[in-house]
Amino acid sequence: MAKLTQDELLAQFEEMTLIELSEFVKAFEDKFDVTAAAAAPVMVAGGVAGGGEAAAEEEKDEFDVILTGAGDKKIQVIKVVRELTSLGLKEAKDLVDGAPKPVLEKVAKDAAEKAAESLKGAGASVEVK
């Protein structure tokens, strides 16, 4: 197998959906026993330091944005999902049709709130956990 250059690898990553890239990062972390740095809001990694469940709730820094319903403006919701995730049209449509489904996972609080606002503005029902 030929060794790929850094540019060739980046070109391959550009073609991946956000979900595929997230799965790749998890597999990479497992294979090499490492943790990815917080290079992008979607790839925030790390645990909550503290003692007990109460401390974990207070210090929560990762949120999931879950689409619970598309509402009347399904096409607008699909457009917003595509903007937020860089999914293709078919993948975004499947996500919206399969609601409730997570749109973004383990993102910062401000990113989760912005995403939820955008989806609500398009007419979707959204939950941030």
Structural features, described:
Helices cover 50% and strands 14% of the residues. By secondary structure, the protein is of the alpha+beta class. Strands 2-1-3 form a 3-stranded antiparallel sheet, with helices on one face.
Summary, kept brief:
By secondary structure, the protein is of the alpha+beta class. The protein has helices at 6-14, 18-32, 53-58, 74-85, 89-97, 109-121; strands at residues 63-69, 101-107, 125-128.
Uncertain runs with pLDDT below 50, 5 residues or more? 39-51
The fraction of residues assigned to DSSP E strands is: 5-15%
Structural class: alpha+beta
pLDDT averaged over residues: 78
Q: What overall geometry do the principal axes of the alpha carbons give? A: globular
Quaternary structure annotation: single chain
Q: Give a quick account of the main beta sheet: strands, pairing sense, barrel closure.
A: 3 strands, antiparallel
Essential attributes:
alpha+beta, 129 residues, three-stranded antiparallel β-sheet
Which secondary structure elements does this structure contain, and how are they paired or packed?
Blueprint: H1 6-14, H2 18-32, H3 53-58, E1 63-69, H4 74-85, H5 89-97, E2 101-107, H6 109-121, E3 125-128
